[in-house]
């Protein structure tokens, strides 16, 4: 278990039902955005959307970084002395629905930065969101106008009233590129460190029978590693109740699962998140080897190794988790009559809105826009995805207009059922073909 060295301080803060004009120490469990510029206004600091007197803002930037507990929250507010003026809230998205999981308060604000202790601490799951409710006609939440697409470009959603149940993500007023000054921190107990977007035991076309072998290798000789392997079925928004199996690997140990679907207890296709419940070296000391293959019985197997996508891929050039404003590309097979081509999309807690374009040698063949719920996997054949036949050596360009996602393509031989796969790679300066 990861333990925050500042826990004792946060426990003291949690005992006080009012705001402190001071800053909490940094911690390994966070949610939201820390806009700590002191009391003074930054040049591009703005107020939240001027909605109803009583309103709730839910930050979409920086969802909770792990499973754990939030013990202190920092809020940037435009007025001091708002007696019992705010509540801090926490939300979980399943599909397209945001549901409040906890709230604390009401609290009285300082002008500028207020620090609230959470009494008792709030349990959150990785991907949860933090929000603030304005209860009286006094001040308002402050946000930073980012003015660009970056890690804090998702902004926030605003709803009228003191939201206490469930709301549709499409029903709120969206403020993109405005980072809400609301930040929580605390303990870290479990972290999703990587994702295998396509795994399982499932029957396919032309008599194929696909399975997944998983090997987890602990590269640390001195420490053990433990966590969970969490399975999310295709076509259904992921939820906390999805099936999982634990793992424990000693120093330099190897854990092998010959048939992942059978181990989990499913014959479905889906995706897997691999979590860590230990502090040592993640994700660097855990190597994930997944082989997806067609089982032809006495005829042997044919398959490929699927790379696990680390969650840190959001922060690197040419990463495989495509964020807001990012473009990725894939290429269709050279012989689509012999090889069938599928397109897969795996989303995370913000869902995704995607524009997909299919290009021939010198012209646009099709454009589709798709909206995906949170923690969702879709895999369909390329022709169904675009609504037009897929040809040879065509370029697929995928632009994320909201949320974030992993994109991949599979090419499977229609005779041997030998599969292969490619990830949609984020293209730096990627441009679309131009007609002559």
List the helices and strands and how they pair.
Elements: H1 7-14, E1 19-20, E2 29-33, E3 45-47, E4 55-59, E5 67-77, E6 86-94, E7 97-107, E8 112-124, E9 129-134, E10 142-145, E11 156-160, E12 166-168, E13 173-175, E14 178-180, E15 182-200, E16 202-203, E17 209-218, E18 225-233, E19 244-249, E20 254-257, H2 260-264, E21 269-276, E22 286-295, E23 301-306, E24 309-310, E25 327-331, E26 339-359, E27 364-372, E28 377-381, H3 382-386, E29 395-413, E30 419-423, E31 425-426
Antiparallel strand pairs: 1-8, 2-15, 3-10, 4-9, 4-11, 5-8, 5-15, 6-7, 6-9, 7-12, 10-14, 11-13, 15-21, 15-24, 16-17, 17-20, 17-22, 18-19, 18-21, 22-23, 25-29, 25-31, 26-27, 26-28, 26-29, 29-30
